[in-house]
Amino acid sequence: MKKDIHPKYNIATKATCACGAVFYVGSTISEIKIEICSQCHPFYTGNEKIMDTAGRVERFNKRRAATAKVKK
């Protein structure tokens, strides 16, 4: 490796999540702010939320029901 061209690697970089969780990871920057982590992500917590914007879920279910009637 060439000298003095690589960024300094920090072993204990503080990664702060929007939910308040703090993790220490290795990185080339001194502080990381993240929006979602393993303590608040629905896949890891098991709390899945469906965010229905503009009634898209209802429209999908309505079209699916209409298609099922046609197939019968």
UniProtKB/TrEMBL annotation:
UniProt KW keywords: Metal-binding, Ribonucleoprotein, Ribosomal protein, RNA-binding, rRNA-binding, Zinc
A single GO molecular function term of this UniProt record: metal ion binding
Listed Gene3D superfamilies: Ribosomal protein L31
Keyword Zinc: yes
Pfam families hit by this protein: Ribosomal_L31
Cofactor: Zn(2+)
GO biological process: translation
Positions bound to Zn(2+): C17, C19, C37, C40
InterPro entries per record: Ribosomal_bL28/bL31-like_sf (IPR034704), Ribosomal_bL31 (IPR002150), Ribosomal_bL31_A (IPR027491), Ribosomal_bL31_sf (IPR042105)
Cofactor binding remark: Binds 1 zinc ion per subunit.
GO cellular component, one term: ribosome
Record family assignment: Belongs to the bacterial ribosomal protein bL31 family. Type A subfamily.
Subunit description: Part of the 50S ribosomal subunit.
Role: Binds the 23S rRNA.
Name this protein carries in UniProt: Large ribosomal subunit protein bL31
Source lineage: Bacteria, Candidatus Nomuraibacteriota
Gene: rpmE
